[in-house]
Structures are given as structure tokens and as C-alpha cells.
Write a structure and sequence with these properties.
- Residues 120-130 have a biased composition (Basic and acidic residues).
- By secondary structure, the protein is mainly β.
- Helices cover 6% and strands 45% of the residues.
- The protein is built from four helices and 33 strands.
- The protein has helices at 48-63, 106-109, 167-175, 299-306; strands at residues 2-6, 14-17, 20-23, 29-33, 67-69, 76-77, 83-84, 144-146, 187-189, 212-231, 234-235, 238-252, 256-261, 265-266, 269-270, 272-276, 279-283, 290-298, 316-326, 332-348, 353-365, 378-389, 392-403, 411-422, 426-436, 448-458, 466-478, 483-484, 517-527, 534-544, 555-565, 570-581, 587-597.
- It has an 18-stranded antiparallel beta barrel. Strands 1-4 form a two-stranded antiparallel ribbon.
- A hairpin with a 5-residue loop joins strand 19 (316-326) and strand 20.
- The longest helix has 16 residues, at 48-63.
- The radius of gyration is 33 Å and the shape is globular.
């Protein structure tokens, strides 16, 4: 007579034992031979509570890599009065890790055949243990010793902490759930932003494997800020406004048209009221010209649908007035007319690269760079790679910039960086950008030399809320990014808040060109315990070291930033800085900004 026992529930369910999470294994069915137990087994009274604890804990222990009993085990009696036998483990083999063809059943390895006339009767596994001995999860936990697997990331459930179940902790992940406030776009047609329910079936226009599910969103943010102070160009006493609008028309799950418009700004100037020599003036800078407008899609999905099959490969492409950003905006941050494509999610066993993406681009117009007079002067052809390898990640890129009017301004721009964590205490990034190739005398070159950037942050006892950082740079010649929108600030913008423009009021900064200068910033980033507010404090310094420097002497600055949310869609931000510049007028300022995201 066979007894069918259900050993577990679904893998997706989680349970908590004394605050530690374990995962239930997939449901399995095991055949148990209800034979008379061997003499060294004894029958105990069934205890539902201990039975449940034993099931959950033993499954967790088996998943952690195995256990071995310290002595004989015993059976448990099921609620219907029948017995489930638990056998001593003979080897460290984990039966749950066996394949379907090698995993034995309890009937095949745990039964003891009654003596009889059949001369081919099986011998008991007690007499001849095998490496595939089955382990019944219902085992006497008091006789078991847990041996954690160092290669497993699962939580270790200690024996003395598994004797009781905290029902409140088990229910907490479910009882504590609540609706998360979501700010919806100004316009959402076709489908609701972060809506619930099943994705509706699409329209078969391009093939059944790339269905059309049209939707249109218009989202962005509105920023308004009041500032007072002085930057390198003069006084900055103004109240400025900026509206960023993203318009996104999605055709299929992988193809879309997108455009970005800033209706309140033109040529990096924002609609504002400003105080000039005691006179209050209004500046209208409204302009509806798109800053970006491009198509984005996956050729694998498109071609696969046309040929009546699922996407055979991934080949993302984009064309139009395309925004490109590489290396956190240091090497490139601009929108230019052209196209780009990428080979994503590749790997190389030969080079020991676990994952890499490789992007190629060609830009023909509207390329912004201090190396050229205007945005129609140059073409750019290049590539950029992101590689996860060697305990960190590598970012590399190369571009050739061809000047249309003056060939002597054409040049090569190359970069490489490596980022990783050391000793579990230091996050470090080393980045190099090199420019070369302009055929002019040195003092007339607009893109020449290079920039070394070293960025560091310390891992403290509170890694999410207390982050000290120290960033340094060394520039020689006149290094340039491939392309930089004027509103993006200078090539040193990520060095610290004293080098980062606010993008609305013209807030003061130190020299951001990196031309023949060396310096850095040291600061601390303090985040609220609930990650709901931020305070930044920073000291910065730079000094020139060559004749190509734009700074006329040493420069020092102190800066601070504080911001916090008002609602899930709005925040307030405050900035203050003072910079001392040798042989130049000091720069300083304070500002307050209100931001509404939608």
C-alpha cells in the first residue's frame, strides 16, 4: 500500500523563521512504502506544529547544501495514522539537486522487502547504502547538524532559532503592503501609466510576434528657482523657470517615437525676471523647437515579426536628433542629428568578460563643443563600450571629429575608465580622456591634451546614509568631451557641487574647463534614515600649472546643498556656495528651487 505525501508548496512562496527568510522548494510527490519500520525506529505521537517546523526547516537545510544526522532518526506519524519513514543520510549528496533521471524515489531506495520465497528480493538500503539514498524531509531536527555551504548566498537558519515560528513576522510582508502614490503624466492615452491588470492583446499589423499596443505619454517636470549672487560673468539675481516636456509615442513593445521640448528656454537662457542694476526686467525665452526627436527600435523584433518568428537576435537602433550620454555625461552629453546602433548583452569567454554592450554612432549636425565655433561645424563618428569584467566594469570609447570648414581643427577623442570596489571599503573610478590630432600650433588648438579623473567614495557603517567622497582631477592642455550641450555644464561637472551648474539660474561655479589645472573636491553626502532628504557639504580647490590654463590663479570654494520631498511628486532644494579666486573676482550665491515632476 502506497502513501502519497505532498512535500512542499510553490517556489515563489516565502516564509520566515525567527526573522530569517527561507524558500520553499517546488511541489514534489513521493511514494512511501508503508512497510513495518526497522527495529531501531520508534513511533512518536504526531505534533502538527513540530511537523510544520520540521518540513520548512529541513527543506531550507537541504537547499543550503546538506546536513548530516548525529544519530539514528525516527519516523513521524501523519494525521491519518500512517507512518512516514525518515532514513539516516548516507552521503552528502543532495537529492533535490539530482536530475529527473537520477533522482530515486523512496519506494526504490527506502523500502525493505519482506522475506519470502522470491530469490530476487531486494536487499535493504540499511545494509547496502548507496550514494543516491533519499532523505525524507520529516526528520528529527534535534539529531541533525547543519553544515552551511559557503558557496550559497541563502540565509543560514540556526538550529536554536528554528524552534519557534513568529506568526506576526510571517504575516508582516503581506499585512504591511499599501498603495504607492504614483504621479501620472499630464497625458496618458492608450494605457494607464503603471496601471494594473493584464496587458491587453495587441493589434497584428507587423506580425503576430510584434503586436502593436499604441500609447502616448507626455511627462516631465517644472522647475522654478530664485537665486542671488555672482558667477564668472557677473551678477545673477533672478527668478527663472524651466519646463521639460517628454513626448513618447510607443508603437510596439520595442519601437517608439520620442521628442523632448523645453518651451520656456532658448539657447540655454530661461524665461525669467531678473534684477539688473536695481531695475527689474522680464526676459521672454520661449521656444518650441524640439531639443531631441528620434525613432528607437529593435531590428531583431522587427525582422523577426516580418519573417513570422520571435526576435532571433537583439539589435537596437535609433535615428534622428538623438541624445547620447556616455560615462555619466563626462565624455559625451548632447543631442545631435545622426544615428546609433548597439550590440547589447554580449559576453566573451576568451577575454573573461561576463557582460558587455557595444555602441556605434555617427553624428552629422547640431554637435555642440567648445572645440568648434558653432553646432554645424563638425561631424563625429565613434564607438563606446561598457564591459563588466575583472571585478568591476570598464567604459571605453573612441570618436573622430571632422571639422567641415577647417580641417586643422579635426581631432581624435579617446577615453577609458575602470570602476570597482576595493577591500569592501572604497569605491573607486579612474577615468582618462585624451585629445590629439589638431594640426595647429599649440596655443591655437581648441581640443588638445587630456584629463585624468579619480573618483572615490568610502563605504561606512551606514553605507546608504553616510557617504564621504573625494574626487580629484589633473588636466593638461585643453581637453574636451566629444560633445556637450551648453546646459550640461563643463567637463568637470561630476567632480563636485562646486563645479556643477544648476541648469536654470546660472549659479556660480569654479573653473570647469580642466585646462592646465589640477584640483579636486572633498565632501560628505548625508541621506535621511528613510532616504527622504539629502545634505551635501563640500570643499573644493584647483590651481593652474601651465600656460593653457583659463584660471588666473588658485581657486577655493565651500558649498552646501539640502533637498527634501514635499510630496511624492514635488521637492524643495537649497544651494549655497562661496568661491575665492586669485587674481579674479570672487564668485558666490544662494538659491532655492521648487521642482514638480509629472
Amino acid at each position: 500500500m502506497l502513501l502519497l505525501v505532498s512535500a512542499a508548496t510553490t517556489l515563489a512562496q516565502t516564509h520566515r523563521l525567527s526573522g530569517r527568510t527561507i524558500r520553499r522548494l517546488p511541489s514534489t510527490r513521493m511514494e512511501v512504502a508503508a512497510e513495518k519500520p526497522p527495529a531501531h525506529f520508534r513511533v512518536t505521537k504526531f505534533d502538527a506544529r513540530k511537523f510544520n517546523i520540521s518540513i520548512l526547516t529541513s527543506l531550507a537545510q537541504q537547499e543550503l547544501g546538506g546536513w548530516k544526522p548525529a544519530g539514528p532518526t525516527m519516523p513521524h506519524r501523519l494525521p491519518n495514522g500512517r507512518q512516514a519513514l525518515a532514513l539516516p543520510r548516507q552521503t552528502a549528496t543532495n537529492p533535490l539537486a539530482m536530475t529527473s533521471t537520477t533522482r530515486p524515489t523512496l519506494a526504490s531506495v527506502a523500502t525493505e522487502t519482506k522475506p519470502g520465497p522470491n530469490k530476487h528480493a531486494k536487499e535493504t538500503t540499511k545494509d547496502k547504502p548507496t550514494s543516491e539514498t533519499f532523505i525524507n524531509p520529516r526528520i528529527d531536527l534535534s539529531k541533525a547538524e547543519l553544515h552551511a555551504n559557503s558557496a550559497d548566498f541563502s540565509t543560514v537558519c540556526l538550529a536554536n532559532e528554528c524552534e519557534a515560528v513568529d506568526g506576526a513576522q510571517e504575516a508582516f510582508p503581506y499585512d504591511s503592503k499599501h498603495d504607492v502614490p504614483t504621479q501620472h503624466p499630464w497625458i496618458e492615452w492608450g494605457r494607464v501609466w503603471y496601471g494594473d491588470g493584464i496587458t491587453p492583446r495587441g493589434i497584428d499589423l507587423f506580425g503576430p510576434y510584434n503586436l502593436v499596443r499604441p500609447k502616448f505619454f507626455m511627462y516631465g517636470d517644472f522647475r522654478t528657482g530664485v537665486a542671488s549672487g555672482r558667477n564668472a560673468a557677473g551678477r545673477t539675481d533672478n527668478w527663472a523657470n524651466r519646463l521639460n516636456l517628454d513626448l513618447d509615442l510607443q508603437i510596439t513593445d520595442s519601437e517608439r517615437f520620442h521628442t523632448f521640448v523645453g518651451p520656456l528656454d532658448e539657447n540655454n537662457q530661461f524665461t525669467r525676471w531678473e534684477l539688473v542694476d536695481g531695475d527689474l526686467r522680464y526676459r521672454n525665452e520661449m521656444d518650441l523647437t524640439p531639443a531631441t526627436a528620434f525613432f528607437e527600435g529593435d531590428m531583431g523584433a522587427i525582422l523577426g515579426a516580418w519573417s513570422g518568428q520571435s526576435s532571433p537576435f537583439e539589435f537596437p537602433v535609433t535615428a534622428g536628433l538623438v541624445p547620447l550620454l556616455f560615462q555619466n555625461g563626462i565624455w559625451m552629453e548632447d543631442a545631435a542629428s545622426g544615428f546609433a546602433f548597439a550590440f547589447p548583452a554580449k559576453h566573451s569567454r576568451l577575454l573573461n568578460w561576463s557582460n558587455f554592450d557595444w555602441t556605434f554612432f555617427a553624428l552629422f549636425d547640431q554637435l555642440n563643443s567648445p572645440a568648434f565655433q558653432d553646432d554645424n561645424d563638425a561631424h563625429a563618428y565613434g564607438t563606446a563600450a561598457f564591459i563588466e569584467a575583472y571585478g568591476g566594469y570598464i567604459e571605453a570609447g573612441y570618436a573622430y571629429l571632422h571639422a567641415r570648414q577647417d580641417e586643422s581643427l579635426s581631432y581624435h577623442n579617446a577615453t577609458v575608465s575602470f570602476t570597482r570596489r576595493y577591500f569592501d571599503r572604497l569605491s573607486n573610478s579612474v577615468r582618462v580622456i585624451v585629445n590629439s590630432g589638431q594640426d595647429r600650433v599649440r596655443n591655437q588648438r581648441t581640443a588638445d591634451g587630456g584629463l585624468l579623473l579619480v573618483e572615490n567614495s568610502l563605504i561606512t557603517a551606514s553605507p546608504l546614509t553616510v557617504v564621504p567622497y573625494a574626487n580629484f582631477f589633473y588636466g593638461w592642455g585643453r581637453p574636451q568631451s566629444v560633445a556637450r550641450a551648453g546646459i550640461s555644464g563643463g567637463i568637470l561637472r561630476n567632480t563636485g557641487i562646486n563645479f556643477d551648474t544648476d541648469g536654470i539660474n546660472g549659479f556660480a561655479t569654479l573653473d570647469v574647463s580642466a585646462a592646465d589645472t589640477v584640483g579636486g573636491s572633498i565632501g560628505i553626502d548625508l541621506i535621511g534614515e528613510s532616504l527622504d532628504r539629502q545634505l551635501l557639504l563640500e570643499l573644493s580647490y584647483l590651481t593652474p600649472h601651465g600656460d593653457m590654463a583659463l584660471a588666473n590663479g588658485d581657486q577655493f570654494a565651500v558649498g552646501a546643498r539640502y533637498q527634501f520631498p514635499i510630496t511624492n511628486a514635488t521637492l524643495l532644494r537649497f544651494d549655497a556656495m562661496h568661491g575665492w579666486r586669485e587674481n579674479d573676482r570672487d564668485v558666490y550665491g544662494t538659491r532655492m528651487e521648487y521642482r514638480w515632476k509629472f
